[in-house]
Amino acid sequence: MKNLRKFSVLALVLALVFAFTACGGSGGDEAAESSEDKTIKVAASPTPHAEILNSVKDKLAEDGWTLEVIEFDDYVQPNVATSEGDVDANYFQHVPYLNQYNEENGTELVAVGNVHYEALGVYKGTKDSFDALENGDKIGVPNDVTNEARALNLLADNGLITLKEGVGLEATKTDIVDNPKGIEIVELEAATIPASLPDLALGVINANYALGAGKTADDAVAFEAEDSEAAETMVNVIVVNKGNEETEKTKALVAAVQSDDVKAFIEEKYNGIVKAKF
Known about the structure:
This protein is α/β, with parallel strands linked by helices. Helix content is 42%, strand content 23%. The chain has helices spanning 2-36, 46-54, 57-62, 77-83, 95-105, 145-157, 193-196, 207-212, 229-233, 248-257, 260-270, and strands at 39-44, 66-71, 89-94, 109-118, 121-124, 138-142, 162-163, 176-178, 184-188, 202-205, 220-223, 235-241, 274-276. The strands form 3 sheets. The chain has a 6-stranded mixed sheet, sandwiched between helices. It has a 5-stranded mixed sheet with strand order 9-6-10-5-11. It has a two-stranded antiparallel ribbon with strand order 7-8.
């Protein structure tokens, strides 16, 4: 019995030691997870979104965060990566496009912070002005719903076409009621329009793709007005999955991007093509 009691006590001591060691191991795992959780992964278009994000890397690092920017060249994969949890956030789109994407894909992505507005521009192709246009000339426009509507409104504002009254940012080609110059509207994937300019009289290009192609304000014949409906509606935003609006990662990212330093960076680098909206 005495030996049995000694054995029982020894077993108890060993069990406690094992439990303590296991707890210590768990703490190590938690520390590793905590360290890993200090990385903020953001999907973004290369220009200007990734450039703007990269400008705040050092600021976030000062606060203990590592910012990892993952670049995409299209308007679909960043939302896929966000909704599937491969990244913590994305930054490439405006709210109307986000709403359209959610509706079509059954996702629950939400905007958590305004950052900037990109003026849609009409850029020179084979022609260098509206006056030079001739019957049958082709003008390329983005083929996604929201940006095509913006493009048509921009052409209407410059007298090339007339749209049905009241269609606003829901305009489509079928809403063109007058086309005095007989131009042909060619719907193209937004990213391909800069490379298509040699085959177009003019091209309506999103600012990120224009900048990515090395275009400047001198290459354009017109931009959306700063007080236009589009300028107030098409603000580019940081987006996360629903439920992640108040996480520490989200708060840190939004605070870093919505700063005076970023506002100055945008003004200096993009010369009016991109404007801060916070």
